[in-house]
Amino acid sequence: MQQQHRQPELVEGSLPVFVFPTELVFYADEQSSHKQVLTLYNPYEFALKFKVLCTAPNKYTVVDATGAVKPQCCVDIVIRHRDVRACHYGVYDKFRLQVSEQSQRKALGRKEVTATLRPSASQEPPSPRPQDEERRIKEQFADSEFFEQTAFQTAESRPVAGGPSLLTVLLGLVCMAALMLPTLGEQESTVPVYLHLSVNKKLVAAYVLGLLTMVILRT
């Protein structure tokens, strides 16, 4: 009688989690650095589901804070810093990625990634000794709590309306003025002939004005 080989049951928190990079650095004066990407790798033969937690979720927006990774695949997790202020310079936050099997709820593994905001890449502070830096980060996060990012994603799924931009308003006024000008071929008009517009040009102005109206209504 052949003995069936069973996959050993994984103990909670024992599964190694592979994430790159292990540190996120945002620079206040570089808009492009306000968006960072974490890559979660799944080298295993089974699918994983993941959840992203954070010690300061109101400072960040995480795209797809929960999801799944197919076997021997990877997934990119986009993280945006949305509270770039001088009072946050040098403050360390932490993201925790928890993974589990699709059919289980317990976390099989976790990995923590530090995040910090600095004023400028050209003003990098002198690097402290690795031991001192590690001790300082551990002290800062000794009693820290991790919160789910999804609750803040729902509230931030749409940015706060700030009204239409000045360029949008000016372009709308130009289109309205174009529609009010006489059409090419009209005889009884006090407007100079060079300001008479063809029907096609007025159609274009009407189309652009309609698009601008839709943009303004959505803001």
Automatic annotation (TrEMBL):
GO terms for cellular component: endoplasmic reticulum membrane; Golgi membrane. Residues 114-135 are annotated as: Disordered. Keywords: Endoplasmic reticulum, Golgi apparatus, Membrane, Transmembrane, Transmembrane helix. Residues 17-113 form the MSP domain. It is found in: Endoplasmic reticulum membrane; Golgi apparatus membrane. Signal peptide: none annotated. It is a multi-pass membrane protein. It holds the Pfam family Motile_Sperm. The chain crosses the membrane at residues 160-181, 193-217. The keyword Endoplasmic reticulum applies. Plays a role in differentiation and/or proliferation of mesenchymal stem cells. Proposed to be involved in epithelial-to-mesenchymal transition (EMT). However, another study suggests that it is not required for EMT or stem cell self-renewal and acts during later stages of differentiation. This is Motile sperm domain-containing protein 1. The lineage of its organism: Eukaryota, Metazoa, Chordata, Craniata, Vertebrata. The gene is mospd1.
